[in-house]
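Your task:
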Amino acid sequence: MTQQTPVILITGGAQGIGKGIAACFLDKDWRVVVLDQDADAIKVCGQDLGNPDNLHLIKTDVSRESEVVSAVAEAVQWGQRLDALVNNAGLADPDTGPIEMLELAQWQRRIDVNLTGAFLMAKHTVPHLRQSRGSIVNMASTRALQSEPDSEAYAASKGGLIALTHALAVSLGPAVRANSISPGWIDVRAWQAHAPSTPQPLSASDHEQHPSGRVGTPGDVAAMVAYLVSPDAHFVTGQNFVIDGGMTRKMIYRD
């Protein structure tokens, strides 16, 4: 009996880090399902990644359960299985202004997309992941561990993702493993839907402030995802992995 090609589902996968993860797994000959609510980004992603046999794109708002149910059914029908879920969808801008001016709708939208979307995706993919003894990777942020001013909604949603991760790991193990990744500064400009053909180089000081000596790339995050969903990580679950070039370990004071 021939072994089926593994299938990964990536939310928010049409641009940025998610697109980098999709490209990584296409290179590994996985079948890749990308969910994204941005129709224009989906179109560009399909053109850029250009692998119609192994790439399936679905327009989906992960904060809406009816759309999640439909998308998961379509993904499983296309792939005939599901081996990994990457909850990457999220509203990226952390700055919502002073908390006394933060409207409930702004707060709720970030919670709905960044956190509730991951819950809904897990809820409806777990039956399939159990069958494959698969894996979930939630994309959190270093802002779950440290903050800048006026980022309460974003920080809360990402902190919730880390807690959701270890709860899922305990509830779903040993059949399904769950881990999270907290990226720091990842330069995604070349992976956006309307990326400049030649992005302006980052400054030397941008790179040098990182103990690793450089700003991160989507490939850095994709490499960790590839490890976490592989058999090599079979003993790894419920963990949060910080990929930030060492910045959360660096003490920074004003001169």
Summary: The chain has a mean pLDDT of 95. The chain has one domain: 7-249.
